């Protein structure tokens, strides 16, 4: 009824290749953006911004990063956490070496370092495939984690061994450090996430995005069609690690405020991988849905027993949360292995024909 | 610097033979334990193509169930039997609830499902038994404690823990039993048929569901043995789950489907990381054990992508 | 009506629309002092965390049961599970700070570091009792952070002092080898600068054995190294599952246990018990009472544990880490009481709490009054010194339980204090512009 | 099928009227083995510009291996390949592709997660050059390039009559259409030499006729040289200018269809006379 594309004709290839060729989708996107940029800042309280929206956006970006590698280029990686860590440590070093530089620029620049590291650890992907590759990315995870602990230069020889985010201002507004308002941090995180998502949407619909998907779907055929496998895979590793690096830097600069090496452990890798798989491999929108599910659900679950009038101990809730998350992951994998993105498509398909089911 | 890398370690090995033997022994025991965890992975991967990430937590879960039951007054041996029962129920449940609905999905989906299972078991295990570490009931189970020291000439002592010897013996027994099971029994043959070709196995009337439940159960038993052994070395706690990651480089070395590969790979990693850490680790500040195994596996893989016992992969199109 | 509202709220949350914060404020009652406890009963460090959490919770709960709170005002106690995870720690902080939280005790170096800069902004003090950032002892730089009764550097200096005593004087340490096995994270690395300095000063050799967090149950390499190096003493900075594993390994390589000394976080009963008979002689630092024989603990047992208002197992009352948790709550409670006295208010705020903690004076008389005579060394916080560098004692495992094995030993304040000042200055410089202390010292 | 035969006789004669037929590719004494198993033994043949060359032989004769050697997927242990006058021994598949060799596969090797349009667009990869940073921006050069190539691809879509499935993921298409899309993808590369590995396997008569028509049209309209493997003898005889016959990795015949058909060795091979 409302979601009909009939009657919307495209008169040029340009219009046909737009990101959202259907009017209703464009309206939907506009509504989401207005909500994100205007409604949420106007209505939300600090807790919602700092504990739900900021982490959600950071994770969404990380999930997009991993999705590029795993979802679009078909290279399974368990090293996401470490690549995020590289971004965080790089951003930390950059801000302490260039204290007067714009911290947002530094965060965006930090991804370059994780991209380089990611490309190095992507080298084995030429010879190693599938699960074997996944295990070798664990080498990156553990080795980099070790570096974060063992190279004191990375954390400026702090006795605590952790990186602490310094106070920085951008255009007179406190952007990082304890005095930064949740709102300021939220806008920065939102801005970076939206920008990178948009740029990635562009890359993915063009030649490079296609070459990644060719490698993913059938690497041999892709090679026989002129795709250089190493170059293409390394590019995916680099782009993916860049995005993960920026997400990692945002994680410490705009969310956590301080981070130990253990903040970038294998747990983080799994967290992001879950988001990608549940959201849907090879879908940008799915990355957001997956991040929302994996991050927000446990936060919400914490409040549910209280609302229902049960007085459960904190750890019982935590145990239950683990069980519920685990069970839901299996449940959703069974119901729809292609993730929320596919469920969303199916829903749209249903909407198209609604109210007549056939 | 070059001296430190290329000569000094060997001089040390020669000068302190007792210590070198001790290092080898520790490497051997660690290798056996890695091999046991890897064995659990291999069993399941062979029969169902599932890379079972939950093997690590199954080790913890099995150990925890055993100790937890004993703490609640169940005699040790009865607790052992009950735990085996619990692992059986778990295997059946996993087959029923997870494996069966996900049949024929891509391997990454199955992998994720087992990580989901990991989350569930972590929550469930802590919910039932609490999160605090527990001591393994080594003595109650009749496993030896204590240690024996051997003198190496007049150069020093090599201390062997009885529990480690028991671990080695049990590992050998377990592998032998599995080998007999695979080769001599009807179910074992069916299992191998399934490993070779699902469709073909189905068409000759082998029940995949039954086979899967059996391998999960077998993997559960291996997990229980691992849990007891590792629990006796430190204690049973959820931190142990991470140690199970060590089985992954072992699998890369040995190949995902090879039982001998798991054992040889486990030993290589066990020896390799102990010797590497003790004789070369100090050069970079120690603690290299956390990643050395992966790097060994990675380098190995670059030269032999099919693993130790895998056949050369011929790409076809 | 209320149900409908709750239902609506629940639906809103499920939709992920920002009402979570609104709900959280609804829980708080007006006439109570709200104390959030960031605890962990799950995750890899649960083994240590559970006892701490029980101790902290039970003492405050007992005050509610016995005295109706503090100063006639009940305590609203809420646990928030962090799992020793920095992400969840921040979430817990954000979720609870709006409810009028008086003080935070993160029980994780990582979470403490996250909260240190926030404390001054949100005006809620952080009490990291015997952990966290050592430099925070310098109250003029860190007015909002308290790490009474001791910093890690105090602890490390006591260990060396004790070893010196065993050897018949610090001068005899020359040429000795002291091994340091530690959790390879900020926590375990923190004492290194002090130990290195002391090594230089007294001429002993410091050998380092880092244990990666992910591998804390797999320490055979570290202990093989110990066996090769044959240090005269071993010092341990461990936490969670690292402790019992280390004790077991030490027994395994037949290291003389009476020369193996853990920090106060390696002093758990389970930690030592893991080594069985062989662990006899293992020593650890401690600053909270040994055993259950204190009137206040009896009250806890009677009013809280036996009454089923806690998840504590009665047998664990009196264990080291449980008592540690109790001491933590004693400091919180005394801080609140002092703040009430200073401000004349019954329901206080975080700012008042800071004043209370800074004026904390837990002398012997007061300890006795609390039913905790001898439970801790008398401690006094001053505006400049938020740690106090109080004496600690050594306890020894006799195979069944801990018993006190030394008198109270003073830390080497002369060495520690300058190091603290220096570290504080460095921290402020690295985090420039670090806010200067806004509240002048009262004296 | 008769209709094709009459059409078919034309192009070679056209070419013969001109100068000497130009060699596009020559294979000399190529041998290939896998761990002791010989797949190809000492094979030599050539492909002339503009012709349709068929490679036939019983199962396991080494036909697909031969194609794999030509486009660089397998590296022969012995022998050389001369491509447009240049001798080479070994090259990477993507190098072969960039030099103008395209192919289809015995078992359809489409990119299953992508739409028909994207699959065919992927054939244009080598001809698109806008770098990563233009791609990020999209607006401007990258978009213009995309549209330019989209036009070419739409021509191919029109040519193959698959307009209706443009936006359908290829995984959902029936087999016959998948084969057609695969042909489209290879065509999008505008190759000099098009290798078709059993383009009509598993098709019904009608589909085979369509496919034959497309192959001939490609050959005549675009002047593309084609080498194909096919089992359907009727199709081979109708379509091809010259045929090379392999058996057990050895060449047993080479020449115009009629000649080959009459060869005793070929008849033996197909009837399974023991060697």
Structure characterization notes:
The complex is a heterotetramer of chains A (358), B (317), C (443) and D (275). Chain B is mainly alpha-helical and 317 residues long. Chain B contains 14 helices and two strands; from the N terminus they run ααααααββαααααααα. Chain B has helices at 2-6, 8-15, 17-48, 55-71, 76-99, 107-129, 162-184, 186-196, 198-203, 208-233, 240-243, 247-254, 259-280, 289-303; strands at 147-152, 156-161. In chain B, strands 1-2 form a two-stranded antiparallel sheet. Chain C has 443 residues and is of the alpha/beta class. Chain C has three domains: 1-30, no CATH class; 32-150 and 295-381, Rossmann fold; 152-286 and 392-412, Response regulator (Rossmann fold, 3-Layer(aba) Sandwich), CATH 3.40.50. Chain C contains 16 helices and 13 strands. Chain C starts with a helix and ends in a 13-residue tail after the last helix. Mean pLDDT of chain C is 87; it is low at 1-29. With 275 residues, chain D is of the alpha/beta class. Chain D contains twelve helices and ten strands. In chain D, helix 5 runs parallel beside helix 8 and helix 7 crosses helix 8 (175-188). The two termini of chain D are 35 Å apart. At the B-D interface, loops of B face loops of D.
Structural class of chain B: mainly alpha
Question: Strand arrangement, largest sheet of chain C?
Answer: 6-5-7-8-9-12-13
For this structure, the CATH topology of the largest domain in chain C is: Rossmann fold
Widest beta sheet: strand line-up of chain B: 1-2
Topology of chain C as a string of helices (H) and strands (E): HHEHEHHEEHEHHEHEHEHEHHHEHEEEH
Q: Compute the gyration radius of chain B: what is it?
A: 21 Å
Distance between the termini of chain C: 54 Å
Let me know the largest β-sheet of chain B. 2 strands, antiparallel
Q: What is the typical, i.e. mean, pLDDT of chain C?
A: 87
Order of helices and strands of chain B: HHHHHHEEHHHHHHHH
Give the helix tally of chain C: 16
Q: Shape of chain C from CA axes?
A: globular
SS class of chain C: alpha/beta
